[in-house]
# Entry
Amino acid sequence: MFTHIFFNRLKCLLRDKMTIFWTMVFPLLLATFYQLAFSNLTANEKFQPVNIAVVDDENWDKNENFRQVLKDVSTAEDNLFNLQVISYDEAEKLLQNNKISGYIIVDEPIKLVVSKSDINQSIVKSFIDIYMQNYSAFDRILSENPAMLKQLTNNTGKRQTFVYETAFPGGKPNFVVNYFYSLIAMACFYGGFLGMREINEIQANISSVAARVNVAPVHKMKAFLSSSAASLLVQYCEMLILLSYMTFILGVSFGNKFGYILITTLIGSIAGLSFGAFISALAKKTEGVKSAILILTTMVCSFLSGMMQQSIKYSISRNVPFLSWINPLNLLTDSFYCLYYYDTLSRYAINIVVIIAFILIFSTTTYFILRRRKYASL
Amino acid sequence: MIIGVNNLVKRYGELLAVDHLSFSVKEGEIFGLLGPNGSGKTTVINCILSLLDYDKGEIEIFGKVMSPDAYHIKRDIGIVMQNIAVYNELTVYGNIDYFCGLYINDKALRKKLVEEAIEFTGLSEFTKFYPKKLSGGLLRRLNIACGIAHKPKLIILDEPTVAVDPQSRNKILERIRKLNEQGSTVVYTSHYMEEVEQICTRIMILDRGKAIATGTKDELKAMISLGEKITVESFAITKQQLSDLRKLPGIVSVDYRENKLVIKSGKGKNNLESVLEFFKREKIQFGKIFSELPTLNDVFLEITGKELRD
# Structure
């Protein structure tokens, strides 16, 4: 009986285009959209060399030290500047047309001409300040004690640091991954459509098909569990497709705890299914209204877990932590976040325990509603 | 006795949907539950099937108390719902196989039964069709096939011909009669009196959750005072002539509206001959004239004072 119901339910679910769209196609489309949107953001985050010019005059030719230093920082692999050596008029023209952030006139002291004050102008100014400070210090030391030349040459470029850098245990810091993790959480909870369908087709007061199943010699809970197992299989496979798509096509990083990622996705899928079943069993409304409740709840929880704006998640964690703990989508998002960033599993374990508690609440409530043997009205 | 219902009471809040109803269905019968919409037919069926909770009463099927987990009873019941109860994602064959599989575990036997049900309902050409591609009549036949494939001893059909064209309706009724001939006891609910008259061996007329009459169609018709009903299409009858008609022996009532004259006789009286003689004598011109015996609608009308289709 289990296999009979299970395989027929699989057929039904796989042929239900609307449910497949919401539970699989929609998250895939959203992930693609995210990738398109965030790829530009990450590209903008990469340091771009500052376009500058230096006025090609007699002082520039004479100041060999400065010429050498500027050349070094403009030609290295991680170059600081894109340097042009041009005439004063040309430099002024390029500055007016915003082609360069500023131009340098080698004088005593070195002058920087800019048209506005921005991050690029600050970089050029800092560079010139540091150069002039070092040059001045070297000049004074050598004029007082020429014997220090060798020592100074050896120590050039050495810095005493008071902050120690250690290797990061998790993945590389990446502000984009949280968006994808919250998207996975949303997709898990869109599995609620499957749970909702299972309830609709087992509650005789909701559909005719359910009434027919109820008059058959099959235990209601057995029928429900068989069909729910089919729903879980479909939902989990959809989630694996989404994870594979994100990992192999979009290049989203999940860290290296693959086993835990699969377990988290499975728990998320169960949570989503049980949530949909819970909503459907609890709300005595039409299927359309129940779907609307499911979508609305999921979207609000996704928003609060940072799916649209990452700072929302942190703001809620800081200011209203209780809201973070009662939002299963946030817990799921945070679980993926922990697996990616943290070396230890303590915070991850707490998240998973709370999600399992949610699953138990949803399932128990659904069970007590489902176990009703007769209905007051049909 | 296949079904025994004793003193059944079902309320929806303030509304008394089933009012102390008692009846029994014997083996081999086609038992009709006839009543207008809202008379409580479907509520009674749902109570019998233990889908609905009821306030009072006892229900037995096959001599055993019916309950939601009486699987040994449910195994021998087939139900054809008023609404189409099939999966849109399964084909005709898939649907019948699925519902039959809820009763029959043996795969080979199930295959045989499904094929028989397909042939019986005339769906052989449509086995690979999905329900959305079927016409209303074919859908109803699929609905029936899903309910009867496992060859139940008791088949309950709740308004199975609603919104079906006359041709498909006749086919469905034929098949129900055939199922009965093959040994199934049938409970058939409808608000179409012609259907119930056509196929049911015993009929219970329901109104506002109460049984107002039970018996064979002849027994029911014998309960009322009306005998023959003569309808005449005539364009010119005077008030005096109508008055004279009423005085003919055995005539109970004469009603003349919109060129249609309806003459009712008392039980056991036949007045067609005397009416024709009267028309000839009075030289009254007439078009069609026909005589009818009382229908179940007349039974309902006389007992409740309203039409069955009100």
